[in-house]
Automatic annotation (TrEMBL):
Organism lineage string: Bacteria, Pseudomonadati, Pseudomonadota, Alphaproteobacteria, Hyphomicrobiales
Similarity comment: Belongs to the short-chain dehydrogenases/reductases (SDR) family.
GO molecular function annotations of the record: 3-hydroxybutyrate dehydrogenase activity
EC number: 1.1.1.30
Keywords: Oxidoreductase
Name this protein carries in UniProt: 3-hydroxybutyrate dehydrogenase
Amino acid sequence: SDALKTAIVTGSNSGIGLGIARALAAEGHNVVLNSYTDTDDDHALAREIAASAGNETVYIQADLSKADQSRMLVDKAAERFGSVDILVNNAGIQHVAPVEEFPTEKWDAIIAINLSSAFHTAAATIPMMKNKGWGRIVNIASAHGLTASPYKSAYIAAKHGIVGLTKTIALEFAEAKLAATCNAICPGYVLTPLVENQIEDQMKAHGMDRQEVLDKVMLQRQPTREFATVEELGGTVVFLCSDHARQITGTTISVDGGWTAL
Ligand code: NAD
């Protein structure tokens, strides 16, 4: 089972997904990058990773707000590489508003992309894992899969939901006697482009400088007062995909600087 594997990382042309894709590529695995766009930059990114890692990396466009495209992503990856052994469900979006003002279309999009897409990609991938008797599914949840904050109802509902989906898939893998696991990683704040953009907005909203926003607004719930990094998330996924992690299944791993210990 130390042979080369094929990995899909959803939502991986940016941020955490890209960090995870780079880490899996560095292990030599075939890697499928994905997002909803289909630009020259997306394909150039795949070529850059392949050139530096010496692996095969391809970019496959799929809009994961749609069930059929979520399943098609898995089908296209399997056509290209023969099967899918590692599935990392990472794609996600955020919207912040009180429940009574939360736009219905934002609720629907967040549930579709952050939760339902993981169900569809897993459903399309599991038969291949059953065939091989080996598999790894890693869902990128959040500290908000275990705790809540105001004004993030859809995100928190989706992230709690994906933790439940994770446990169920793990139990079905165990029933089927597969050397397959399913876990969720729960990051605290990670300094991705997404979060970087929020810093500017928060500086304006609070009349604070960058450091004040980081310390008093963003890292206020993260006891280490440090961001987790995309490299640390990549390393955690690589570990979960290793044979040492065989008995880690149906659980969550927090990479949150102590957030959920408070
Ligand atoms: P990001 O915006 O940098 O990355 C999100 C990725 O999802 C991008 O590649 C984007 O193109 C893709 N995506 C968005 N909508 C899509 C769609 N419809 N179809 C396909 N792909 C789509 O953000 P990130 O911070 O790297 O977030 C990645 C994951 O990590 C998300 O699930 C997020 O909830 C989770 N997370 C992030 C943090 C953090 O602090 N950054 C903390 C906890 C959890």
